Amino acid sequence: MSENPLPILTYSEENYLKAIFHLSEEGKKGVSTNDISTEMKTRPASVSDMLRKLGDKSVIEYRKYYGVHITEDGKKLALQTIRKHRLWEVFLVEKLNFSWDEVHEVADELEHIKSKILIQRLDEYLGFPKFDPHGDPIPDEYGDVRSRPRLPLSEIEISGTGQIVAVKDSSAAFLRYLDKVGAYIGARIKVIDKVEFDGSIEILVDNKKSIFMSKEVVNNILIMQ
Amino acid sequence: MSENPLPILTYSEENYLKAIFHLSEEGKKGVSTNDISTEMKTRPASVSDMLRKLGDKSVIEYRKYYGVHITEDGKKLALQTIRKHRLWEVFLVEKLNFSWDEVHEVADELEHIKSKILIQRLDEYLGFPKFDPHGDPIPDEYGDVRSRPRLPLSEIEISGTGQIVAVKDSSAAFLRYLDKVGAYIGARIKVIDKVEFDGSIEILVDNKKSIFMSKEVVNNILIMQ
DNA sequence: ACTATTTTTTAGTATAGCCTAAATTAATAT
DNA sequence: ATATTAATTTAGGCTATACTAAAAAATAGT
Which helix (DSSP H) or strand (DSSP E) does residue B61 occupy? Predict the structure, then answer.
């Protein structure tokens, strides 16, 4: 469709576009100025400014007062940034021994480094990983994503098993909690018991350790069976 | 002396400071606005602006119309940036198989990533290297530099030997030339002949290959004996 | 349907970093 | 020593990205 080369975005435009992409993934509706403002921690007025600019570069469709939709070009660019972010996360965790709750901020800086060849070589060096340390899929060069089928832990039946493949909430606090109880990405789990009235469950991790998890935690863990 | 924490610099201020540091290393006099302008590829008027800002942050001493001197704080900050730049160069060459003439631009971006812990872990991961791929010393966390004694290749006597440890000119064109003739950092050389009237010489590289080098090339190669 | 509230945009301001053109200061040459 | 030239700074402008306050549009409540 788009014959033209993708536009070049500034550091800041890239961040806004990434935020818009993530927000679009959630509710399938258009994304509101206020939501973006919250996500980006800037004022709505600043968001309006930026939306005009992103609209001019055709990475979003912008109708005043009615929120925005990301375009195909926008999606490609956002996925390129996400690819870089996640590859750097893999690097930080696997090569530099960062724990998975420490990598976000640093990757947020590294993702803006422009060199294409750098990312290709990094990808190769890391063995072409398909998922980041949080279990999120790494898009390929062309923005294609192979995601694995996943269910919230809360949907697994008693005595059902699976592997933790991702988390929804990736706040540092949550990740630290998971680390503490040994529920890392890739851990094999088995549901031992489910308590109906409060939504909490008991699971066995790696056939060794039994832990209790509250409904809040259970809702934020994704399982591949 | 300076009790206060070092100031935080913007991306652009960091680049100017690095340029001023490098220029100070050459002639031991104050650095002129024009020199900085040439180095940074910006106009002298922009340099004046920036000098005022860097002066306000006390990383340089700025006397209008008389050029600038870098302060102790400035030196520390510049060396931190240089440390990051050179560590990333080592990473790019040793881990990602970049050739040494490809690393400059990418390292110029990577050097601005702020995380302290990232640089510590990178340093560790690389095995605490003391020199970058061009043979330039990597300052430690505190800005201390252990440089090895080095002579320009032009000063080596006939039949004198040594190892190439650095280059003065590190333009991509020059580095590609060296690569082509096999004169990499670490190569062992022996001076076979020196031609007085044009300053060119003949050297033997790694006891195998004899090559001729013009005065221009010879002046830009540094040898450790 | 119409008012009150919320959301979004516009208008105007600030700062960073660049620019050109003009003014000023320093250096040089006779 | 003064006049010319060169280097540097100032003045004013531009763009990007933020902000606040005010205006305008959309939404919600009765």
Answer: strand B60-62
Tokens of A163: 């592997």
For residues B36 and B20, the answer to whether their CB atoms sit within 8 Å is yes
Angstrom distance (rounded) from CA A18 to CA A81: 7
Give the best residue of B94, B105, B121 to mutate against chain A (max A CB count within 10 A): B121
Q: Count of CB contacts below 8 A, A vs B?
A: 36
pLDDT in tens, B6-23: 999 999 999 999 999 999
- What is the interface pTM, i.e. ipTM, of the complex? 0.80
Q: Which residue is nearest to nucleotide D10 (CA to C1')?
A: B45
Strand C: list positions under 7 Å from protein Cβ: 7-12, 16-22, 25-27
Please tell me the predicted confidence (pLDDT) of residue A83: 97
Kindly give, in sequence order, each residue whose CB lies less than 8 Å from that of residue A52, ignoring residues fewer than 6 positions away: A62
Domains annotated for chain A, with CATH where assigned, are: 11-70 (1.10.10.10), 151-224 (2.30.30.90)
Q: CB A115 to CB B92 under 8 A?
A: no
Contact indicator for A100, A175 with CB cutoff of 8 Å: yes
In angstroms, what separates the C-alpha of A208 from chain B's closest C-alpha?
Answer: 32
Protein-to-nucleotide distance from the CA of A209 to the C1' of D14, whole angstroms: 64
Which chain A residue is nearest to residue B119, measuring alpha carbons? Answer: A96
Can you give the pLDDT at residue A101? 81
pLDDT band at A3 (very low <50, low <70, confident <90, very high): low
Nearest CA to CA, how far is A89 from chain B (Å)? 12
Query: In this predicted model, what pLDDT tens digit does every residue of A5-47 receive, in sequence order?
Result: 899 999 999 999 999 999 998 876 789 999 999 999 999 999 9
